[in-house]
Each structure stands twice: as C-alpha cells, then as structure tokens.
Design goal:
The chain is an alpha+beta fold. The protein has one domain. Helices cover about 30% and strands about 30% of the residues. The chain is built from 3 helices and 10 strands. Strand 4 and strand 5 form a beta hairpin. The longest helix has about 55 residues. The N and C termini lie far apart (about 145 Å). About 20% of the residues are buried.
Length: about 240
C-alpha cells in the first residue's frame, strides 16, 4: 500500500529593509506634524497668557488713575499741572494735582485727607526700551513746604511694560489740549485757575517688541470740580 506524504514547507515571514524605511518615514512625518501642532498650541497659550497679564495691568492702572482724577480738587497752594514729553518709543506725559483719593498705607501713622498725586514715566531699569509708570502720593499739609515734602516721598510702581503714556485735557468748551497748568503768573487774576472738565488717559503696552506689536487702552475721566467751575463761569457770563 503506497503512502503519500504531504510535505508542507513553512517559511518564516519578515520585513524587508525597504518596508522598514517606509515605516520609519511615515512615523517621522506623523511625529513632526504632532510636534508642530503642539508647538503652535503652546505659543498660542503663551500669547494669550501674556495678553491676559497686560489686560490686568491696564485695568489696575486705569482704575487708580480714574479714582485719583475723579476726586481732583484745586487748593490755593497746589497746582494742576499736566506736561507733554516724548521718548524714542512715544509719549511720556506726566501729571501732578491734588486729590481727595489720598491712599493711607500706614494705618497707624497715616492720616486721610487731600493728597498730592504725581504720575511720572521712567525707563525700566531692567529693560530701558520699556517704560514704567510711577505714582507718588503724600498728604497735603498747607503749613508745610510742599516741594520738600514731595521730594521725600518714594513713588511706587503702578504698571510696567509700557510703550507710551499720554494725557490730554478737555476744557469747558470741549476743546482738547495737550498740556494744562493752573499756575497764575503775577498780575493775572486768581479766578483763571481752573481744573479741566475732563482728562483723557492713554496707556500703550508692549505685546511683542521684536514684532513691534502693542495694545492701547484709553479712558476719559470727568472731573466734577472742573465741571462745577465751568458751569459757574458760564452762569456769571450769562448774568453779565
């Protein structure tokens, strides 16, 4: 009886060098695409975070400036002075005036009252291409020498990362002026000392200095005392 033997040849299957190279190429392309996507997402998150910080800085600064200006007064021996100045990056205006918004930092030794408020713009000590806005505040005492008192007060940092700071002043006729000075020269009438009816403030912050991108925040603050003065003058002119 004949027996048929079936011989089955089993071959070990494997990858060729070409298949391995193609797989590595595809894997590399996938990794590159994922890396680019993640890099873009990280940059977007970083940019959003930086803009959020700028918005917060602007909000804090604008609230402080608005409160100071809204409470502005004009004592006999204190002037409201807004000056215009410029730097390589933009405006660096400064402002000084009396306000009822005096901040008492020392609850034990400090006293509430009228404060002499000053806003000054200086280059950042770390990066001189950026500006910082400083605020000074000391209690107004008519019997003391105000100039000496002002020099003794250390201003504090209100906000940084600035490109420019601009103040403008609106008079009783609605005209916008770049400077304001209530100083009365000899021979002039004291009645000419007036606060502006409103003050506009513009803060420009750097977003990316390398790309020359920035964002500007603006606000206009009405000065109640200035409006009252303007209305009183109009009534006197109407009566005459």
């Amino acid at each position: 009886m004949a027996t048929n033997t079936l011989n089955i040849e089993i071959k070990n299957a494997g990858f060729t060098l070409l298949e391995i190279m193609l797989a590595m190429l595809v894997l590399g392309m996938v990794v590159s695409m994922v890396s680019l996507s993640l890099s873009g997402s990280i940059k977007a998150i970083g940019a959003t975070s930086e803009q959020g910080e700028v918005y917060y800085r602007a909000q804090v600064a604008m609230e402080r400036i608005s409160e100071d200006l809204a409470s502005a007064v004009l004592p006999e021996n204190v002037e409201f002075i807004g000056s215009k100045d410029e730097s390589d990056t933009g405006r660096t205006d400064e402002l000084s005036f009396a306000s009822m918004a005096h901040l008492v930092f020392d609850s034990e030794n400090g006293q509430p009252g009228v404060g002499i408020i000053g806003y000054a713009v200086r280059p950042d000590k770390i990066d001189e291409q950026q500006l910082v806005l400083l605020r000074s505040d000391f209690l107004y005492r008519p019997m003391e020498e105000q100039a000496k008192r002002g020099n003794e007060v250390e201003p504090f940092l209100l906000c940084d990362r600035l490109r420019s700071v601009r103040f403008s002043f609106i008079d009783r006729n609605g005209e916008e002026l770049e400077i304001w000075d209530t100083t009365v020269e000899e021979g002039e009438e004291k009645a000419e000392r007036q606060l502006p009816a409103a003050v506009s403030c513009s803060l420009e912050f750097w977003i990316n200095r390398d790309e020359e991108t920035s964002i500007t925040f603006e606000t206009t603050v009405v000065l109640p005392v200035g409006l009252i003065q303007a209305e009183s003058d109009e009534e006197e002119q109407g009566a005459t």
